[in-house]
Each structure stands twice: as C-alpha cells, then as structure tokens.
Design brief:
5-stranded mixed β-sheet; Methylamine Dehydrogenase, Chain H; mainly beta
Length: about 375
C-alpha cells in the first residue's frame, strides 16, 4: 500500500562523524530534513569525518514522505520522523515514522508509522527515558505523545491534547503548535503555540506517558510574537524562547519544582539598521552553556549571543551571514566545534567553526549541495 501520498516530498541526510577528541563521541550520525518537488525520495546519507571535515555521499537510505523534522534515540539507534502532511489515509492528520539505524552502513530500515493525531506535524522529540515520543501538530493545533515498543516501533498515543482557540482579541485566535519537549528533569512538558502566542506547561507522567495541565499552565507571550522553538540551558534554570514573527529572543527563568517559566528579558535578533522582512527559525544553546545561537530567515544570518554567567541574560556577540538563503535550521555537532546551517532556498548546507572562547563563527569553506534542506540532527554511533 502506498503510504502518505503527497505532491511535496521531503528528504533527510545522514552523515557518520569521527570525533577529534577522545572525551567526545567517537562517531555521530547527522540527519537533515529537506523539502523538494524534484527527485528527492526520502532520507539520504553522507559520511562526515570531523577530523578532516570531508563528506561523501551514501545516497538514498530510506524512502519516506516529508520527514521534515527528526529525533534520534542514540542508545537504541532508532530514528523517529514526522511526516509533514495534512491527509493520512483519508483523515485530517500527518504521520510519524520509525526507522532502525545501521550505524556502520548508514542505512535505515523502516519499522512502522502511525497517524500523528493532527495535520502538518512539524516537530518531534523524545522524553528522557526514551520510552515516549512527543509531536507538535502545527496545522491541527495539537500535541501528542506516543509510546515506544521494545523493538523501537511506535505504539498507540498515550496523550493527545487539542489546544483551544483563544478569545484574546489582540492575538491570533487559532492554535498552531510548533514545538513540544520535556524539561530537563522529565517532570514537565512545554508546548510552544505560535498561533496563540502562548507557552503551555503540562505535568508529564513518565510511567504512563500522559499529559495534564500544570497549575501555572499558560504563559502568555507578547501579542504577535509568534513563539516558535524553546531551548533549555544546560543548568536547567533558564530557557530561551525564539519568537518567529517578532524576530526576537525571550529569556525565562525556570523553576523546576513547579514547572514555572518567568520572562525577564527580550531582545531583537536583527541589527537596528535592517529594514527588510525576516522570520526566525531555529535556536540552540551551545553545550558549554556560554552561547545561544539563532537563525534569521530574510536577514539570512546566524546570530550569536553570549550568556551572562551570573544571571543568564544575553548580550549580542555577532551576526554571521549563512552563505545561503533562508536558513531554516542549524545544528551544533556532538564535539561542539562546528555548526551546520541548512539554507533552504539556496539548497546548501554551510559549515562553520565555533570559537569556544567567544562563540563566534568562522566559515570552514565546506558546503554541501542539498535540495531545500530543512533540519539537521546528530546521533552517536560506534566506530567502524
């Protein structure tokens, strides 16, 4: 039976990496999602040597439709991907797929797929136990949790929460869930809803996979901000929210005991002189906790902020051109030494060296030609 038929095809890339540092992972796999209307059939692979920077194509490793965002269980070598569509076998839903990873050959074996519970799923994440998958359904305005079976296959949904339309007249009325993940201690899950200008905090039961509203369940964001993605700091006391429409970053304190987020700083991702259109796309905190990175689509830059060690506030360090058009996403490699930018509209992946002391980015000169790349993920694997 033909699965998830759609006129838009999405692919991804896997690259196996060799660490340059004995204290780091020995190898890693890198997954990049792409949107295309050409010959791209699904998930593609590249082998990457972190010591030399060389990359070589491994070709098509799995056929699937619209895997625009992925999450990886590195302990069991399983990849989970959304299938970003709005019709799953006649119902208003997208899909979620599971694949087993062969870390030596860089191949993927299809395990199973399930309906996502809402249209256009755009984000996927794993809880800290690796027993549950979280999905944000953008078009459907809902979030879902799925159990994972012993062999890595996706099971039935353990939670499905439909976000309610807002009656706040200064905000958009329709929900568009764009991100969901667990807090660092796995006790709470936070959903980011771009349409409602809200963060929604849920109690997460890691035994049952259930979601229930927290006492402080809704965090209102400035009207018209369009919150997109959230990134927790490694100290688990701070979180950084990326606002797509306002092109800004908001800084929150996080009270882990009660799952409470409190905003105390917001600053622009754009230079003061910039007058063109822009929409932010991705945010990440460097593993050393010293820097926050953001991508601007329109200004076409990666913005680097330094994290104040005393209070977590941000200060601008640099905005670096991405070497392409419309940086939809980026990822820091497992060694923390390089940043890979997926420039969607120019069809390339550009690699930057990260300065550990300043956070600044320097182009390495490495560029991959990839049709309409969207997202990038790494997975640790064994040495071949």
């Amino acid at each position: 039976m033909k699965r998830l038929a759609t006129p838009v095809v999405v692919g991804a890339l896997l690259a196996l990496t060799s660490a340059t540092d004995a204290s780091s992972v020995s190898n890693a796999g890198q997954f990049m999602g792409t949107y295309t209307t050409g010959e791209i059939k699904g998930i593609y692979a590249y082998r990457y040597d972190a010591a030399s920077g060389e990359m070589s194509s491994l070709g098509l490793v799995a056929i699937t439709v619209n895997p625009s965002f992925a999450a990886v269980d590195a302990r069991r070598n399983i990849l989970y991907s959304v299938n970003e569509i709005d019709n799953y076998e006649g119902r208003a839903s997208g899909g979620v797929s599971a694949f087993a990873i062969d870390p030596q050959a860089g191949k993927l074996t299809f395990l199973n797929e399930v309906p996502s519970g809402g249209m256009d799923p755009c984000y996927i994440a794993l809880d800290k136990t690796g027993k549950f998958v979280f999905v944000a359904n953008y078009g459907g305005g809902s979030v879902a949790v799925f159990g994972i079976q012993a062999d890595g296959r996706l099971g039935e949904p353990t939670a499905l929460v439909q976000h309610a339309p807002s009656d706040h007249k200064s905000r958009a009325s329709q929900p568009h869930a764009h991100w969901i993940d667990v807090a660092p201690d796995n006790r709470y899950a936070v959903a980011v809803d771009l349409g409602l200008d809200e963060l929604l905090v849920y109690h997460f039961d890691a035994a049952k996979g259930s979601l229930s509203p927290n006492e402080h369940a809704v965090v209102a964001i400035q009207a018209g901000s369009g919150p997109r993605h959230l990134a927790f700091h490694p100290n688990a006391k701070l979180a950084y929210l990326l606002n797509e429409i306002k092109s800004s970053v908001s800084v929150f304190s996080y009270e882990a005991e009660r799952g409470v987020l409190r905003r105390f700083q917001t600053l622009s991702t754009l230079p003061a002189h910039y007058v063109g259109s822009n929409a932010t796309a991705e945010i990440a905190v460097h593993p050393n906790g010293k820097f926050v990175y953001v991508s601007n689509r329109g200004h076409d830059s990666i913005v680097i902020f330094a994290v104040n060690a005393a209070d977590g506030t941000l200060q601008l360090v640099q905005d670096e051109p991405t070497g392409g058009k419309t940086p939809r996403s980026f990822e820091i490699d497992p060694t923390g030494t390089r940043l890979f930018v997926a420039n969607q509209d120019s069809g390339n992946i550009v690699v930057f060296q990260i300065d550990f002391d300043t956070g600044r980015l320097t182009p390495t000169g490495q560029v991959l030609t990839v049709p309409s790349p969207v997202s990038i993920k790494f997975v640790a694997v064994g040495r071949s």
